[in-house]
Structure formats: C-alpha cells, structure tokens
Amino acid sequence: MPISGGDLATIATLSIADYLRNRPIDQVGTQHPLLEKLMAKRKKLNPGVNQKVQVRKGYGTNFAWSKGESPRTFTKRDTIDQATYEWYTGIDGMYLPWDNLFAAGVFVDPDPASKGKLVPTANEKAVITNMITEHMEAFELGFKEKLDIELHRDGTSGSDAVVGLDAAISRTPAVGAYGGLDPATKTYWRNYFAGAVATVNLLATMEAMWRACHRNGGTPDCIIAGSTFIDVYRTLITLTQNVDAGTVKRIDAGVGQGSKTGLFYKGVEILWDPTFSTLDALETPAASALWEKRAYFINSDQLLYEDDGMTVYSPMSPHNIRATYVSVDLRCRLKAHRRNAHGLIIVA
C-alpha cells in the first residue's frame, strides 16, 4: 500500500527534527574544537532585532590627595559604552524526490485527502526509514561543518553572514568597528595581536600577550591553533627523560590525541583546529595571514555564542515538482564582552 504525501512530510520532518535538533549544537566532536568550546557555554538567543551589551570602558575616578582645606573635586562617572550585536540566520534544506522512492518500491499518493488513511507495508517503512536516515547523517555533518567554518570567519563572506572569530579577535585590532564600537578611538576595545613572529621570539611574544590579556582581567583558558603554529611551538619545547635502565622501554615521539595536541602553555592545552586548513583553501589569504600560522588565545567567559535552537519544518512542495521538502533554520550570533581579554599570534 502506498503512503500519502502529507504523511511522508510529517514522518520526514519529525524524524529529522528528533535526530538533528540537539546534535549540531550540543554534541560536537573534537574535530571542531572552536565549535565545541563555544557550545559548552552556549546561551539562549532571545527574540529582538539586536542586543546591546554593557561594556565598561573605565572607572572614571578622580582620586587625589588632600590636606587641610584643599578643595575637593567631584566627577560624574561615565564608565559605560554599549556594543551592539545582531543575530544571523543559518539555513539548510533537503528534499526526497518521489521518483526515487518509487524506484525503491514506495508509491507516494499526492492526494491531500489520503493523509492518515494509507498504511505502508513493513518493506515500505524500511525503505523510507533507510532513505531518511542517510539524509539525516549527511545533513548533520554538512550543517555542523558549515556552521563551524562560518563562526571562524569575519562576516564578509556574505551580506547576511554571521560575524565570527576573525572579527572578534582581529588581525587589525585598531581598525574597523566591531559591535558598533570603534577601536581607533576606544583603545580598550582592542584585542592583542602580533604578526610575523619569528620562532626565536615566539615564547617572549606569547608571554607578552598573556600578560596583556591578564592585565585586562581576561586570562585565556582556550588556545586554538593551526598546524604551522603547533609545529613551530613544539620545536621550542625541550623534554628531559629519566629512563629506568632495568625495564623494557616504550618510546613514542607523538603526543596528544585527535585535536588535543598534548602541548600546553601556562597549563592550557593547545588544540589543533583542522578547519584552519579548510579556511586557507577557501579564502586564500596572504602568506602573512594564513590560518595555519595562527593561534587564538581565548577567554571563553568573554566570547559567547547564542542561538535559538534548530527549527525544523516541511515547506509546501512546488506545484511542478513531486518531492517532499524539509528545511532547518538556526538563528545565532557570536559576541565579545571584553575584546582585550583575547589575543592572536601569527608565526612568520
């Protein structure tokens, strides 16, 4: 017995919603370390055109010494600026062609009146389930990969693209407004940046960056880096091994596992981000700005990701195409509360 077009749309939508709704935002593997870190402190995105974040720009103090009848001065505190962050909508969709189902042995009845009246056989149910499962797996992997890529970028990949890491922690921290605030005049609104850092100067630069971030109350708790940076940093580490001569030795030149490199700085593990190589191929930046040469030092309390959860629904099929459609929407934004709590170093 066939299945009605309406029932197929319901099954497909509910199946994909159940499978996808939480996976890309709550169960992110270590192959996407940036996305994993952001999702660990994910917040709910509330409705509204945009959000204003209170940013303390200073204390406004007029502290002075006084003795006797020396006049006192008073000042009206002006300590707050507001950064404004918009949200952006990521969309994806897929469709199940009815001819593909027919070729697999399932007839889809287009009559709206047949909804709820047709009962597919066990074999037809198995065919539909298998086809939807394959679509779900591919859908999840593709959505997660694309979201991760776009959260790395600076928002210039499209007019409606999310403003991501490359803007929040900038290679030109004194140039270009971010969150509506201009770092050219608001010096507190600048992240630390050092480019073309020679190997011999790398450790000293990392120490200077760490102190700059710590001075502003934003000690990094997450380091995400590309292959070139990690390879350079590893050459600067000297290992001293004490080996018991009376036991069998097992020597392994490799450290870490997966994206976890086993390399640390100030107790924070450096995570290898495979997406950096993808971005180098996608954006073809100048040699001095290659993603693989970068290391982002992030304070995860001051770089926050928000989304409203995934909305899964089935749009109406076009009148001239016989297929069942499923669409997914995700509204999200990335925002920095303290920009000077973060740093970026690019090796030469």
What are the SSEs and their pairings?
Elements: E1 3-4, H1 5-20, H2 23-26, H3 33-40, E2 43-44, E3 50-56, E4 80-86, E5 88-97, H4 98-103, E6 108-109, H5 122-152, H6 165-168, E7 192-197, H7 202-215, E8 222-225, H8 227-235, E9 260-265, E10 268-272, H9 275-283, E11 294-298, E12 303-307, E13 311-313, E14 323-336, E15 343-347
Parallel strand pairs: 1-6, 2-12, 7-15, 8-10
Antiparallel strand pairs: 3-4, 5-14, 8-11, 9-10, 11-15, 12-14, 13-14
Helix pairs in contact: 1-5
In short:
The protein is α/β, with parallel strands linked by helices and 348 residues long. Helices cover 29% and strands 24% of the residues.
Describe the protein.
The chain has one domain. It is built from nine helices and 15 strands. It has helices at 5-20, 23-26, 33-40, 98-103, 122-152, 165-168, 202-215, 227-235, 275-283; strands at residues 3-4, 43-44, 50-56, 80-86, 88-97, 108-109, 192-197, 222-225, 260-265, 268-272, 294-298, 303-307, 311-313, 323-336, 343-347. The strands form four sheets. The protein has a six-stranded mixed beta sheet with strand order 7-15-11-8-10-9, sandwiched between helices. A hairpin with a 2-residue loop joins strand 9 and strand 10 (268-272). Helix 1 (5-20) crosses helix 5. The model has no long low-confidence stretch (mean pLDDT 84).
- Could you name the ranges where pLDDT drops below 50 across 5 or more consecutive residues? none
Cα(first) to Cα(last) distance is 67 Å
Q: Strand order, biggest sheet?
A: 7-15-11-8-10-9
How many extended strands? 15
Work out the radius of gyration. 27 Å
Helical stretch count?
9
SS content category: alpha/beta
Q: SSE string, helix = H, strand = E?
A: EHHHEEEEHEHHEHEHEEHEEEEE
Question: How many domains make up the coordinates?
Answer: 1
The main sheet comes to:
6 strands, mixed
Mean pLDDT: 84
Q: What fraction, in percent, of the residue positions are helical?
A: 25-40%
The amount of beta strand, in percent, is: 15-25%
Indicate the overall shape: globular
